[in-house]
Amino acid sequence: MPPNKDGEVLELTKAGLDRNVTELAESGVKLPWWWPLGVRCASKKDSPGSISVCSCNGLIQNSLPGLYQCVQQVQAYERQRTQARKQKREIKKRGPARPSKSIAESWERIRAFYPDQILNPGATPAAIAAFEEAIGPALPDDFKESFRLHDGGDNFWFTQTSGEFLSLAGILKQWKRYRQAQRKGEYATDTEDWETSDIEGPIKPIFWNTKRIPVTDNSGDHWTLDLDPPEDGAYGQVLDHSHEVGPTQVLARSWTELLSQLVVDLENGKHL
């Protein structure tokens, strides 16, 4: 390097970045103490009062993977922003979206809105029947139709807060975890600690029972399929469930209605 330079910043292709990261990581080069500051300092007393760069202490092989991940996250975020701007222009041009007329149409439009997201293939009739047998109550027909098209996804989120769309296996795993904890008296018991609050709409005032099926998961927050509604509720209505206070509101009267409304919200830019 020239004497007046500490290093060069190179813009690489992904393949080039992968290759250079590998070569540098394998080199075992040690970084100077001032590396995390982003500037060369003669001594620690000359260090700036604040820094706004990633910390890279120690061996370069320990710090580069984290930096590389940061770069990838920034690039992904920029791609999302570009896509969002494009979608907003298209929304303004075509006008308000219309509700979908079927489960199949809803999924077609959801896939079009999230072209880079991965949805699983549909579940078999045998898998759906086995799931119903495991949980007890029958699933609504529209919910079964939906899962015959897509049995969850690979870290697929309907919205930024919906949580991951679980497969039947993932739903059953979460459901069994809650059931086991409830049987042990550790979850959703008939005590003050598990009283519900802030409920809106026709929902029984209980924190959780085995007839509420968690379809998505966001660290304990769920969209749940309610198979135990009150008289003024609807069998198969979809609830918004908080891990702190239990069910809070009815998101839709059915899975069909939820997907149809979701499509409208997505295409109208509500979740951009």
Note the main attributes of this structure.
272 residues, alpha+beta, SMI1/KNR4-like, 2 domains, 4-stranded antiparallel β-sheet, two-stranded antiparallel sheet, 7 helices, 6 strands, 40% helix, 9% strand, globular
Description:
The protein has about 270 residues and is an alpha+beta fold. It folds into 2 domains: about 15-95, no CATH class; about 105-265, SMI1/KNR4-like (3-Layer(aba) Sandwich), CATH 3.40.1580.10. Helix content is about 40%, strand content about 10%. The protein is built from 7 helices and 6 strands, in the order αααααβαβββββα. It has helices at about 15-25, 60-95, 105-115, 125-135, 140-150, 170-185, 255-265, and strands at about 165, 210-215, 215, 220-225, 235-240, 245-250. The strands form 2 sheets. It has a 4-stranded antiparallel beta sheet with strand order 2-4-5-6. Strands 1-3 form a two-stranded antiparallel sheet. A hairpin with a 3-residue loop joins strand 5 (about 235-240) and strand 6. Helix 1 (about 15-25) packs antiparallel against helix 2 (about 60-95) and helix 4 runs parallel beside helix 6. The longest helix has about 35 residues, at about 60-95. The chain is globular and about 75 Å long. The two termini are about 45 Å apart.
CATH superfamily of the largest domain: SMI1/KNR4-like
**In CATH's first tier, which class of the largest domain applies?**
Alpha Beta
Helix/strand/pairing category: alpha+beta
Low-confidence stretches: 51-58
Rough outline:
globular
In short:
The chain is an alpha+beta fold. The protein has helices spanning 14-27, 60-94, 103-113, 125-135, 141-149, 168-183, 255-267, and strands spanning 164-165, 212-214, 216-217, 222-226, 237-242, 246-252. It has 2 domains: 14-94, no CATH class; 103-267, SMI1/KNR4-like (3-Layer(aba) Sandwich).
